[in-house]
Amino acid sequence: MKSAQPKPQDQPEVLRGKMHRLINHLIQLQDLMYARDQQQASIPGSRLKQLDDAIRTLMEELPDDVRGHFERMSRKAPPALVPITGNACSACGMVVPVSQVHAVHAADVLYRCANCARFLFYPDQSVRRISQKRRRGEPMQVGIARFSSPALMIPKLKANSRDEALEVMCAGMEQAGFIEDRKHLFEEVVRREAIMSTAVDPGIAFPHVRGVEGGGLALSLATLPKGVKFDEGSRSLTRVIFLIVIPTAASAFYLKLLSGLTQTFRDNDHRNALLEADTPEALWKGLIKATRSAIP
Q1: 247 pairs with which residues across the strands?
Q2: Cα–Cα distances in Å, from 23 out to 55, 105, 114, 123, 143?
């Protein structure tokens, strides 16, 4: 029976090395599970066997005690592994004692949140989402307007590659005051794309970053008349890109959002309305109109 508990003879630096490898293993496993959930939400049946096989292999390599708890939490209340942000569990918001924050950072053992029982880790760096405060007297937003704005619309973007398009979109999120570090956001988006492309037919992609600090979910939209290859193995071009940053607490809602966007913009008329928009305001109106029923 494999166990994640430290052995008496292990030296501190050996323990830290083992725990860092285990935490990275869990992060990779959870990323694959997210990718599978996204495939199920956007294109049921597509590439699922490949993902299931990879998930099964990584799961079997875990120590028995860690695997058991990870599987239970993933079924009961995903995600099973969450970062500490602002000295609190990013999933339930429970404040973590300073001494335990330091211990989680040191990574000598694998810690759980005392409130929600999720595994905790200390991120080297995370994307920070800036909170958007509602002005006094301003009406409550509904639908897409809850987490996007005309400032995040980029119509008829001229880009020669996926990365060039993503760099422009990340910069736009920073300039509009939604995130703090465009460079780190771009790096995390590309890292996620390396696991499995988020491009789906017909010519739509949903690049995203999970586990962001602060604020809520945010969405940017760009249209590319000429299109770019989002996946080197694909023959089709992507012409509509939704870039989404997702706090841990919004992970479940993100899948509903993804499903709604996919169903809406598979419709040629809705998709063409976006591609024909030539100003941020026109693109925003097209997005709001198309998603009114799918994303209330």
Answers
A1: 212
A2: 15, 11, 18, 10, 36
**Assigned token pair, 209:** 């970053």
Please report where in the chains the tokens 């422009």 appear, as a residue: 168
* pLDDT value of residue 1: 42
Joined tokens for residue 129: 């989402």
Q: How far is CA 44 from CA 248, 259, 293, in A?
A: 24, 10, 22
- Verify cis geometry, omega within 30 degrees of 0, for the bond prior to 247: no
For residue range 40-68, list pLDDT tens digits in order: 776 666 678 888 888 999 999 999 999 99
pTM of the model: 0.72
CB 127 within 8 A of CB 184: yes
Burial class from Cβ neighbours inside 10 Å (0-12, 13-18, 19+) for residue 245 reads: buried
